[in-house]
């Protein structure tokens, strides 16, 4: 069973339908026990960093994510759901970065490009041996964001270029994340979701 | 690696049906929104936009249901606009399956709504829909409201600049003069809007020939929205993409995984 974490952020129904497409049972939940016990936990996200952290803290979400990692239970962060896994976020921070969950070190910072947000379909330079991108070559995925992580961390990094290089996906043992929205990336996104779901 | 230009199919929905008119009047039935959304998704649309032009609250409920049913089977981004007045309206649409919402009249009446929505959901969720026409304002472009039925005397470019400062994530620029005419996008309007905004710009209104799509990109559009040429089979989405690809514009080809 896959749980989609409902912490007041975003396109939960899109995520629910896309993950159900992989053949797994899917629930949308803000219940800590269900989220902890699920075979796979998806941390989706549409929103601003601070607002998302506030929502996450309300349901003790950071603790759930850390406990799952300790218990070797897979978790996948999507978009802001990836960004909040880092230590700090610069979005609307007026110089004092917001605290993230802290799974990975580093600060999620503004992209440097003439037109922002980075919005639309872009390619991914997938990590060698990536499980998420297995069998998915030369496809584009849908991005909508103005901030990103830019320093390598975790075991496997995939990259995308928009103005500068940034991390478009991370695979790090039981925790993975994508900066793009696989649930909105057509057949390529559904294939990636299937890869993750079948690894649970 | 390059960001692809986006082809967006737009469905104007009222009381559960897709309609299309010329200059926002003389509406004719164009089909079932969920079926059309699914078809455009398969044909390679990079995004879908529903504009709810219903006047009644029952019409709005119907649209929510359409959004839900579309989100069940179409896995590309979905923008929904029309009648969005509050942060709660945005939440409701996102929970129904929308990925972005567009606002227009309500933001003109209450610009702080832009900042309220951006603070809660992030700028990337918010599309400012600007229905503009050529008129005697400072820039020569005026904002209209209520689906183009009312003038505002507001300068369209000044409004776009202000909305960008308040936190919109994207501009949907619809030419009221060109809407539904298939006589070409308003190229002057697109390049003027590009010059004052640093967020992605969607050109809308007037798409007719394949060359029209390329001209709008050359004028600075990041995405191209069209309705009637697709609804009435004048061009298929893949024809537009193939044409643009053959002229070296970056296009997403549809995955066959």
TrEMBL record, chain A:
PROSITE patterns: GATASE_TYPE_1. Keywords: Amino-acid biosynthesis, Glutamine amidotransferase, Histidine biosynthesis, Hydrolase, Lyase. InterPro entries: Class_I_gatase-like (IPR029062), GATASE (IPR017926), Imidazole-glycPsynth_HisH (IPR010139). CDD domains: GATase1_IGP_Synthase. Pathway: Amino-acid biosynthesis; L-histidine biosynthesis; L-histidine from 5-phospho-alpha-D-ribose 1-diphosphate: step 5/9. GO terms for biological process: L-histidine biosynthetic process. Residues 4-193 form the Glutamine amidotransferase domain. It catalyses: 5-[(5-phospho-1-deoxy-D-ribulos-1-ylimino)methylamino]-1-(5-phospho-beta-D-ribosyl)imidazole-4-carboxamide + L-glutamine = D-erythro-1-(imidazol-4-yl)glycerol 3-phosphate + 5-amino-1-(5-phospho-beta-D-ribosyl)imidazole-4-carboxamide + L-glutamate + H(+); L-glutamine + H2O = L-glutamate + NH4(+). Pfam families: GATase. One of its GO terms (molecular function) is lyase activity. Heterodimer of HisH and HisF. This is Unannotated protein. It comes from freshwater metagenome.
From TrEMBL, chain B:
Keywords: Amino-acid biosynthesis, Cytoplasm, Histidine biosynthesis, Lyase. This is imidazole glycerol-phosphate synthase. It is found in: Cytoplasm. Pathway: Amino-acid biosynthesis; L-histidine biosynthesis; L-histidine from 5-phospho-alpha-D-ribose 1-diphosphate: step 5/9. It is an enzyme of class 4 (lyase). One of its GO terms (molecular function) is imidazoleglycerol-phosphate synthase activity. Belongs to the HisA/HisF family. InterPro entries: Aldolase_TIM, His_biosynth, HisF, IGPS_HisA/HisF, RibuloseP-bd_barrel. Its EC number is 4.3.2.10. Heterodimer of HisH and HisF.
């Amino acid at each position: 069973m896959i749980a989609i974490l409902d912490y007041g952020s975003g396109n939960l129904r899109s995520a629910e339908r896309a993950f159900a497409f992989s053949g797994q049972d899917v629930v949308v939940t803000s219940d800590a026990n269900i989220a902890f016990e699920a075979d796979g936990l998806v941390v989706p996200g549409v929103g601003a960093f601070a607002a998302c952290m506030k929502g996450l803290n309300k349901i003790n979400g950071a603790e759930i994510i850390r406990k799952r990692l300790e218990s070797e239970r897979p978790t996948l962060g999507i978009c802001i759901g990836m960004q909040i896994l880092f230590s700090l976020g610069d979005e609307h921070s007026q110089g004092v970065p917001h605290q993230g969950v802290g799974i990975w070190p580093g600060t999620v910072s503004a992209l440097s490009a003439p037109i922002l947000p980075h919005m639309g379909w872009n390619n991914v330079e997938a990590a060698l041996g990536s499980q998420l991108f297995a069998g998915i070559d030369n496809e584009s995925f849908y991005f909508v964001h103005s901030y990103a992580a830019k320093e390598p961390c975790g075991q496997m990094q995939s990259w995308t270029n928009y103005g500068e290089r940034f991390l478009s996906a991370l695979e790090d043992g039981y925790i993975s994340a994508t900066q793009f929205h696989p649930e909105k990336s057509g057949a390529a996104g559904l294939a990636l979701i299937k890869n993750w779901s079948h690894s649970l | 690696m390059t960001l692809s230009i986006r082809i967006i199919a737009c469905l104007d929905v009222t009381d559960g049906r897709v309609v299309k008119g010329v200059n926002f009047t003389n509406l004719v039935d164009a089909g079932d929104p969920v079926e059309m959304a699914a078809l455009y998704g398969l044909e390679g649309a990079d995004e879908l936009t529903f504009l709810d032009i219903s006047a009644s609250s029952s019409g709005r409920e119907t649209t929510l249901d359409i959004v839900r049913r579309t989100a069940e089977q179409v896995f590309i981004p979905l923008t929904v606009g029309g009648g969005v007045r509050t942060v709660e309206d945005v939440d409701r649409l996102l929970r129904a399956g929308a990925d972005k919402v567009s606002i227009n009249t309500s933001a003109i009446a209450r610009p702080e709504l832009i900042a309220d929505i951006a603070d809660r959901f992030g700028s990337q969720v918010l599309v400012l829909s600007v229905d503009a026409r050529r008129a005697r304002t400072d820039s020569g472009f005026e904002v209209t409201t209520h689906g183009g039925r009312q003038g505002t005397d507001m300068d369209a470019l000044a409004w776009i600049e202000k909305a960008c400062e308040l936190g919109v994530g994207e501009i949907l620029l619809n030419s009221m003069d060109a809407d539904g005419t298939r006589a070409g996008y308003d190229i002057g309007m697109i390049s003027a809007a590009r010059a004052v905004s640093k967020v992605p710009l969607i050109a809308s209104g007037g798409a007719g020939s394949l060359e029209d799509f390329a001209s709008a990109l050359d004028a600075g559009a990041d995405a191209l929205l069209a309705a009637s040429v697709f609804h009435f089979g004048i061009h298929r989405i893949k024809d537009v993409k193939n044409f643009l690809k053959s002229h070296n514009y970056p296009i997403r080809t549809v995955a066959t995984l």
